[in-house]
Recover the amino acids of this structure.
């Protein structure tokens, strides 16, 4: 669909916050105001939380494991943040990697439980609360909720993964953001 002035303004805002406009964001452009609000939540999840880059990517990857588009974007970002290939493989298989530190294990266990939709088992909640502040737990939950919503829409709309040279833009942007912190 052709871009109108409202959509162009939203795309400009997204490019300024992410370095580019992905197919995922373009797929939501039929509702520019909704995209503006939704992308702001994603920006907060990526750059405004009190989590480490690795913790953010762990939360995203647990959700992204069943969404090929999201996995194609975030597995390289996770590796860049320090997640090993064996840890990525475990998450993709639906398990918390056993060699993560206790806080990161608690984070993964929590997001897996959150996604199951049956509440959080008391032991998982207790472990999470030992390692994270209420703000950080809210941040983890917001990230998981955002990527769950985004992932289901990407699957529904059949959004295709960008070519490798475009994905490289995202990796480089994130590398620059991390170096600036």
């Amino acid at each position: 669909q052709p871009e109108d002035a409202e959509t162009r303004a939203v795309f400009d805002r997204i490019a300024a916050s992410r370095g580019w406009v992905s197919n995922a964001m373009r797929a939501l452009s039929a509702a520019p105001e909704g995209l503006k609000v939704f992308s702001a939540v994603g920006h907060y999840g990526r750059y405004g939380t009190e989590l480490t880059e690795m913790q953010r990517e762990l939360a995203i990857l647990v959700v992204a494991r069943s969404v090929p588009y999201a996995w194609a974007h975030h597995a390289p970002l996770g590796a860049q943040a320090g997640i090993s290939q064996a840890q990525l493989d475990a998450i993709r298989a639906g398990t918390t990697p056993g060699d993560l530190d206790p806080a990161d294990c608690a984070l993964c266990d929590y997001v897996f439980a959150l996604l199951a939709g049956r509440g959080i088992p008391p032991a998982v909640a207790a472990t999470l609360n030992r390692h994270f502040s209420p703000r950080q737990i809210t941040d983890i939950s917001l990230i998981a909720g955002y990527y769950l919503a985004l992932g289901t829409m990407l699957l529904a709309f059949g959004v295709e993964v960008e070519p490798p040279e475009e994905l490289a833009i995202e990796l480089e942007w994130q590398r620059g953001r991390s170096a600036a912190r």
